[in-house]
Amino acid sequence: MGLELYLDLLSQPCRAVYIFAKKNGIPFELCSVDLRKDQHLSDVFAQVNPRQKVPALKGGDFILTESVAILLYLARKTTQACAHVDEYLAWQHTTLQRNCLRLLWHKVMLPVYLGEPVSPEMLTAMLAELDMTLQVFEDKFLQNKAFLAGPHISLADLLAITELMHPVGAGCQVFEGRPKLAAWHQRVEAAVGEVLFQEAHEVILKAKDSQPADPTIKRKLMSRVLSMIQ
């Protein structure tokens, strides 16, 4: 039996899982989940057989480590992660992932989806923090390589690009003024394939057009969201 992947493509690590599985020809059935409606907490997940199904993220954007474990699980079907990938994974979840996630929520999801105002000063500070993180990304990890782990695309590149598409979906020009980063982005998209890349990011690129949340959903989400983006 093939895998059943429970994914919400609004979630950056879910997009990485989706791209990796499709690009490597791993058979799976996509089971769409709306994390904003807490569908990942439904009874379906309590009945999952881990030998047959891989529910990606019981918390979506709220828990990254489970999705990384899923990617590594899938990767064992193709190749072992190298030291460069491991080093990047150890760094990104408290830096790039955090910056990109907070920026998406403060720039789009809080004001548009949840109807909560965000000060311009807060957004300016977050953009400055992301800019510093991108400099570290370029200097320490990308350097002068084609991809993060060397001449070929890896899990590290997939996770990084899906993280960066969060602020892109929020309307931020993260590649502008960074030719090295922009060239890497083009190489990753070419390696993935333009059609698959756009397919995986269709939802996040429409985030700005989100409809306001139902008041009941807003009440359920607010405390968790505020805790996540501090």
Q: How would you briefly describe this protein structure?
A:
With 230 residues, the protein is mainly alpha-helical.
Would you write up a description of this structure?
The protein is mainly alpha-helical. Helix content is 56%, strand content 5%. It contains ten helices and three strands, in the order βαβαβαααααααα. The chain has a three-stranded parallel β-sheet with strand order 2-1-3, covered by helices on one side. The N and C termini lie far apart (41 Å). The model is unreliable at 44-65 and 77-81 (pLDDT under 50). It is found in: Cytoplasm. Homodimer. It comes from Balaenoptera musculus.
Layout of helices and strands:
Elements: E1 3-7, H1 12-23, E2 28-32, H2 43-46, E3 54-55, H3 65-75, H4 83-92, H5 96-113, H6 120-142, H7 155-169, H8 179-192, H9 194-201, H10 215-228
Parallel strand pairs: 1-2, 1-3
Give the strand order of the largest sheet, numbering strands 1, 2, ... along the chain: 2-1-3
**What spatial form do the alpha-carbon principal axes imply?**
globular
- Secondary-structure element string: EHEHEHHHHHHHH
* Distance between the ends: 41 Å
Mean pLDDT: 81
Q: Indicate the radius of gyration in whole angstroms.
A: 17 Å
Percent of residues in helices comes to 55-70%
Q: Say how many strands there are.
A: 3
> How would a crystallographer describe the biggest sheet?
3 strands, parallel
Bin the strand percentage: 5-15%
Poorly predicted parts: 44-65, 77-81
The class by helix and strand makeup works out as mainly alpha
Q: Keywords, please?
A:
230 residues, mainly alpha, three-stranded parallel β-sheet, 10 helices, 56% helix
